[in-house]
Design brief:
The protein is mainly beta and 114 residues long. 0% of the residues lie in helices and 51% in strands.
Length: 114
């Protein structure tokens, strides 16, 4: 059974870079047909897809976040990482990683504040 676990700092200062890791267990991130996504939910708002990486390593980004977002993977560690640059308080959210649409991590709260 595939499980996903997000990890990273809970507090980030404005203008800095947010880095999160999604560690995958019970399955390989290189398995064909699966894409691994990052999604976030700001307080009081809906889910926002940020981007993803597929089994071949190709990446896809939301147009609204593309200039600030980078998604990569480490196949030796079986994890997917998210970097979001120049964060502002509007980037405060619960951040999730997901495999396709069916398997999600529990999410990690990130607050952007000085």
């Amino acid at each position: 059974q595939v499980q996903l676990q997000e990890s990273g700092p809970g507090l980030v200062q404005p203008s800095q870079t947010l880095s999160l890791t999604c560690t995958v267990s019970g399955g390989s991130i290189t398995t064909n047909y699966y894409a691994w996504s990052w999604i976030r939910q700001p307080p009081g708002k809906g889910l926002e897809w940020m981007g993803g990486i597929d089994s071949s390593g190709s990446t896809y980004y939301s147009p609204s976040l593309k200039s600030r977002t980078s998604i990569s993977r480490d196949t030796s560690k079986n994890h997917v990482t998210l970097q979001l640059t120049s964060v502002t308080p509007e980037d405060t959210a619960v951040y999730y990683c997901a495999r396709g649409t069916g398997v999600w991590g529990q999410g990690t709260q990130v607050t952007v504040s000085s």
